[in-house]
Design goal:
- This protein has 81 residues and is an alpha+beta fold.
- The chain has a domain of 36 residues.
- It is built from one helix and five strands.
Length: 81
C-alpha cells in the first residue's frame, strides 16, 4: 500500500548560511513555486517564499541567494517536530 504525503517540507539553504523551512501541501504546488523561482533568476528580481505557518506572510529572497534545497515528504504529525 502506497502512502500519500500529508505535505512537503522544503529547506531553503541561503548564501548567507541561513536555512529557512517552508511547507507546501502538494508536490505540484512546490513545483509551480519552483518554476517561478527559476524564471525569476534570469531577471534578478525578488521571489516570494510563502510561510505556511503565517497565512498571507512571505519571505522575500533573490533567486541567486538560494544555493540549495532539500525536499522531504511528510506523512504523519510526528514529522512536525
Amino acid at each position: 500500500m502506497n502512502r500519500t504525503p500529508r505535505r512537503y517540507r522544503i529547506s531553503l539553504h541561503l548564501s548567507g548560511g541561513q536555512t529557512e523551512v517552508v511547507h507546501f501541501t502538494s508536490l505540484e504546488q512546490f513545483q509551480d513555486w519552483y518554476q517561478g523561482l527559476v524564471n525569476a533568476s534570469a531577471e534578478g528580481a525578488f521571489v516570494n517564499v510563502p510561510l505556511s505557518d503565517l497565512d498571507g506572510e512571505f519571505l522575500v529572497v533573490r533567486p541567486d541567494a538560494v544555493i540549495g534545497m532539500r525536499v522531504e515528504p511528510q506523512y504523519a504529525l510526528i514529522d512536525d517536530a
